[in-house]
Amino acid sequence: AQRVTQPEKLLSVFKGAPVELKCNYSYSGSPELFWYVQYSRQRLQLLLRHISRESIKGFTADLNKGETSFHLKKPFAQEEDSAMYYCALKPLDAGKSTFGDGTTLTVKP
Amino acid sequence: GAGVSQTPSNKVTEKGKYVELRCDPISGHTALYWYRQSLGQGPEFLIYFQGTGAADDSGLPNDRFFAVRPEGSVSTLKIQRTERGDSAVYLCASSSPGGELFFGEGSRLTVL
Predict the structure, then answer these.
(1) Class of domain B5-96
(2) Checking DSSP bridges between strand A10-14 and strand A103-108, what pairing results, if any?
(3) Digit-coded pLDDT (tens) for A28-56
């Protein structure tokens, strides 16, 4: 079974502060991990995926197989980062993506 | 169009009625997914298609829910004898073999 846990429902930081959104997963096979973001009045969209190892909008995430985590980090949060963030897991070979319940990030001026 | 299109964007119905929700995926995407999202929760998997066939329908909550994708493109999610607990936003997504999901804006279903 696939399971994704995002322990924080709400996270609030000041502009310029570092931010970390936590994601833990359980899956017995080889997973691919994603972060999706939903800005106000927009559709859910991909932010980044662990396979590409890119930094998008200043965000990075490292897959830690030992701790089964895929935390999302940004060193200096911006007001436009305020959004709903979802962590998702998909089996590497094929199959459905399973989502966490999301974290609402608010970046205060 | 360039993105995933879902209709209707809003649907209000009465308990016991039948509802159809439509999804038009990105052209060329072979995989199509249906999710349901209730307030304060993440998208909950319902079913996914690879081409015309349902590759995994393990998320359909009961036999009142059914989905089809007869020509491997447009998909319809059908809900019979709707109940108040079916009220949610129904999301459709399509993907290329790369695995990234492209979502529609969702269909908000309200059952009175």
Answers:
(1) mainly beta
(2) parallel
(3) 888 899 999 999 999 999 999 988 878 88
Number of compact structural domains in chain A: 1
> What residues of B are in contact with residue A45 (Cβ under 8 Å)?
102-103
Q: pLDDT by residue (tens digit) across B30-59?
A: 999 999 999 989 999 999 999 999 999 999
Match 């973001």 to its residue by tokens. Answer: A37
Nearest by CB to residue B43, choosing from A46, A94, A99, is A99
* Amino acid at residue number A62: D
CATH of the domain at A78: 2.60.40.10
Contact flag B42-A101 (C-beta cutoff 8 Å): yes
Residues in CB range of B61: below 8 A, 6 or more apart: B46
The DSSP-derived string for B88-109 is EEEEEEEE-TT--EEE---EEE
B95, A90 Cβ separation under 8 angstroms:
no
Chain B hits for A9, CB-CB cut-off 8 Å, are 40
Contact yes or no for B105 and A43 at CB 8 A? yes
Q: Which residues of A fall within a CB distance of 8 Å from B101?
A: 34, 36, 44, 46, 88, 97
> Whole domain around residue A34: which residue ranges?
3-108
Nearest to A101 among B41, B93, B100 (CB): B41
